[in-house]
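help with these tokens:
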Amino acid sequence: YPQIKETSGKPPILSGTIDGWIGYGSEPKEDGESFNSKRSDLIFFSYKNACLNRLLKNHDIIKINNFNYSPIQYVVSQTTKEILKENNIELNEDNYSKTYIQIYNYLRSNDFKKNYNANVIINNKKLYYNNYMFLNSYKKYTNLLDKYKLNQEIKELCIEFKHEIENYSKIVGIDQDNFSFDIDKKEELLEYQKKQKELTVKFRTIFDIIKSKRNNKEQNTNNNMKGYR
């Protein structure tokens, strides 16, 4: 259908494709959730958690201004500074240390893995934090790496990212073999396909029986006509 293809755009990046231009995917049953929102959340949380996993497993030392940091310490330090800046809080030793400790503990908690945002309490005041602050700090960390270490970091991060996607897919019910389908929808389609095959076999059997009877009837008619001759 060239006319349709010319006027249609490419399928959404997270959907499946047929012939490169027809997109498909299963819509969730839950209210307020869509195909795209469910999968974009999965990718965001998987990537965020993969970055954290890399930081916790990496024990290299980063030396900056005569201070030694582990990767996780550096990222927490940068995140702490950004939080104070975004909330217009003075960057002094007391505010820095209080915020640093809370962020460090938060990143190592289960809450970080499942939440978008959090609050940090400094002098009885809630400070806003979101995960993009953490990801910005992780990016600053990777900018410090030389080419070899950066390539290694990307390689290991991809492994962690794939692992997190697989784990998260199980939790939210997305099929790991076909990212475009939810598990329950895939089972429904397989059941439908099975029934269609059974109906096809049934109708084919009936058709073959009718065809056989008709052939026998025609054969008998021909034989009878030969007898009259």
